[in-house]
Design a protein that fits this description.
This protein has three helices and four strands; from the N terminus they run E-H-E-H-E-E-H. With 101 residues, it is α/β, with parallel strands linked by helices. The protein has a single domain (18-99), classed as Rossmann fold (3-Layer(aba) Sandwich), CATH 3.40.50.360. The longest helix is centred in the C-terminal third of the chain and has 10 residues, at 66-75. Bound molecules: flavin mononucleotide (FMN). The site of flavin mononucleotide (FMN) has 11 residues, from strand 2.
Length: 101
């Protein structure tokens, strides 16, 4: 995490990104940003013409403006400002948020 260029290997590259118009990218905030493997994921697929909606859990930090900006830079896609949830967020609260977007 101290090296922002670190790209941990993905276990597979089979996510059905090509079939989606909108891709929800969820992750826990680590050291105020996305875990490096999220950047590996974003680099591994073609997101052109798609919209990315980030959502995060954290102990208190917000999603911050930098993560969506970096996602835009990596993918060239439209990236939503995203949403932060507490670490113990319920499945219902995520579902309700997603359905009301
Ligand atoms: C390595 C590491 C770094 C973390 N950094 C932050 C942070 O910068 N800000 C924050 O609010 N929470 C931080 N957390 C707490 C996680 O965001 C929190 O545990 C997570 O969202 C809950 O999901 P989990 O149950 O999958 O870990 C960190 C946790 C870990 C393990």
């Amino acid at each position: 995490m101290s090296d922002k260029n670190c790209r941990p290997a993905l276990a597979d590259k089979d996510a059905p990104v090509a079939d989606a118009e909108v891709v929800f990218v969820g992750y826990p905030v680590w050291w105020y940003r996305e875990p490096s493997i999220i950047d590996s994921f974003l680099e591994a697929y073609d997101f052109s013409g798609k919209k990315i909606v980030p959502f995060v859990t954290s102990g208190g930090s917000g999603i911050g403006p930098e993560a969506p900006a970096r996602m835009r830079e990596i993918t060239g896609a439209e990236v939503d400002a995203g949403m932060r949830f507490p670490a113990d967020a319920s499945a219902e609260s995520l579902k309700s948020w997603a359905e009301n977007l």
